Amino acid sequence: MSIIQLSNIAYTYPSGIKALNALSFSINKGEKVALMGSNGSGKSSLCLLLAGVIRPDEGDYFIQGTRFRYCRKQRLSLCRTIGYVFQDPDVQVVSTHVDEDVAFGLRNMGLHEDEVQQRVTTYLQLSGISDLSKKAVHTLSYGQKKQVALAGVLAMEPEIVMLDEPFAWLDYRQSQRLLDVLKQLSESGKTVIVSTHDSQFAAEWADRALVMQQGSLKVDGSAGDVFADEQLLEELDIAPVNQTISCLEH
Ligand SMILES: Nc1ncnc2c1ncn2[C@@H]1O[C@H](COP(=O)(O)OP(=O)(O)OP(=O)(O)O)[C@@H](O)[C@H]1O
Ligand SMILES: [Mg+2]
């Protein structure tokens, strides 16, 4: 069953940049999708659109079989269905303290305060940042803020989780923890979409690869097929698996 369906979606920023163009695809419940493509190809714009932050100029967006109309009621309920961890945590983390930030979305959902506190504790722990609970957000590193944003989204327990460059800035231990979180999400039947430049991760983790190029969907295939095709990867400016970028090689 398709949980997300886009039909002929287009979006142009007010500045005139056309970020998304004639996008049509669907994603099934429980899929693990790697969203790939070079810088500026439209991955984050697509995530923003799916999260209801930007509204398409053309086309239809269906979520769980219902057309998304961008009305207030649908926007408010969208956070229970789809959670987005932004590429830049500075635009997502809104409260002064870590525990308050994770609680923010839960209180907006109207949950009882006991439930809010229980989820804050659970999801700070899952994200590996229980020790940061009482810290002021402005004292955190970029990677730590990214983990706070992750905890806040997971705490809302959405059906679909979208993570935009989730490994950027994370150290080895936190990256391993995030891999465990991704595994748990999939085991519990959630649909997970990860925007990434990390071919190794995408090839090992994803069922499916969607590759964007200049706002259009260039490739939609099984991750196995896409990452086996080195010529295609070269054309799409995507690093082949097992290749690290090293300045020492030049
Ligand atoms: N807020 C904005 N206002 C105007 N143009 C924007 C805005 N955000 C993104 N763009 C433009 O839209 C296009 C798509 O950008 P987007 O951030 O979606 O790409 P991306 O694939 O996520 O790139 P990256 O890999 O660097 O994160 C780019 O040309 C970008 O400059
Ligand atoms: Mg991006």
Q: How would you portray this structure in words?
A:
This protein is 37% helix and 25% strand. With 250 residues, the chain is of the alpha/beta class. The chain has one domain (2-239): P-loop containing nucleotide triphosphate hydrolases (Rossmann fold, 3-Layer(aba) Sandwich). The chain has a 6-stranded mixed sheet with strand order 6-7-8-3-9-10, sandwiched between helices. Strands 2-1-4-5 form a 4-stranded antiparallel sheet, covered by helices on one side. Strand 9 and strand 10 form a beta hairpin. Helix 3 crosses helix 4. The protein is globular, with a radius of gyration of 18 Å. It starts with a strand and ends in a 15-residue tail after the last helix. The protein binds adenosine-5'-triphosphate (ATP) and magnesium ion (MG). Residues 13, 15, 17, 19, 37, 39-45, 87 line the site of adenosine-5'-triphosphate (ATP).
